[in-house]
Design goal:
Blueprint: H1 16-19, E1 22-25, E2 30-34, E3 39-43, H2 46-54, E4 58-62, E5 65-68, E6 74-76, E7 79-81, E8 91-93, H3 96-112
Antiparallel strand pairs: 1-2, 1-5, 2-3, 4-5, 6-7, 7-8
Pfam family, one: LytTR
Domain HTH LytTR-type: 18-106
Protein name: HTH LytTR-type domain-containing protein
Length: 113
Amino acid sequence: MNVALEVYNTYEDFILEKDIMYFRIGEHGLVSFHGKNYHVKKRLNTEQIQNMTSDSVFFKVNTDCYVNTKKIQHIQDGKVYFEARISDSKFTTITKLRQHRLKEIVQQRKTED
């Protein structure tokens, strides 16, 4: 019996809300996606970028970076952490102005779940 197994390639076929912790938008539509153990760069068109940035799951933390509010573990001292172990976890920086608002959003999500 031949059974075809579905192969899920995280690098090519990632699910934005499920697999990506944060992404950065670069020049000419180059977007850098950061997952748990990897990061992938893809060139996207303007419409695709607008769809991603308008998604309520992602919050703009600075001029070119959006974080997945469902993946945030902790926010402290201008940094957003994505794993429980702060010493070696992935993080990105956040402006002080946006830090307070993001904390509110994360707290609200945790109470809803």
